Amino acid sequence: MASVQEWQxxxxxxxxxxxxxxxxxxxxxxxxxxxxxxxxLHIRKRADFIRAKExxxxxxxxxxxxxxxxSQYSIAGDDTxxxxxxxxxxxGNAVKRNRIKRRLRAACREVMAKHAKSGNDYVxxxxxxxxxxxxxxxxxxxxxxxxASETYKKT
Length: 155
Description:
Layout lengths: L3 H17 L10 E2 L2 E2 L2 E4 L3 H9 L3 E3 L3 E7 L9 E7 L7 H22 L4 E7 L8 H14 L7
Parallel strand pairs: 3-6, 6-7
Antiparallel strand pairs: 1-2, 4-5, 5-7
Helix pairs in contact: 3-4
């Protein structure tokens, strides 16, 4: 008889393969200590970034801006979170922009799977202060933005 974790992984693979047309391997990191965490996917298409901007639900902090839009790919009972990262050329050269995006990805790794409501698309825009701001402040900024956009869930 298969364990509960193996069963959850099998069900996740069937769901993703049948419904979302996404490689089932993204779910492998979602099972933590027997609990199924939301799957975090990346936004890659420009149209999804524009849709998040046009949703007019954004919160700005000193280190980042968070734009939130309901995901058009979500299905009832689906606990997928989609996140996109961007940093404009005003922030500096490619090295600085990539460092800001790396820091934002690390902060999102800590916060989003636990505290972001699923079924939404989140676009995280880096600001210049994200480059030298300490990491705990970035995490606080992200949590504040989730609270202010009313997409924060308590664990």
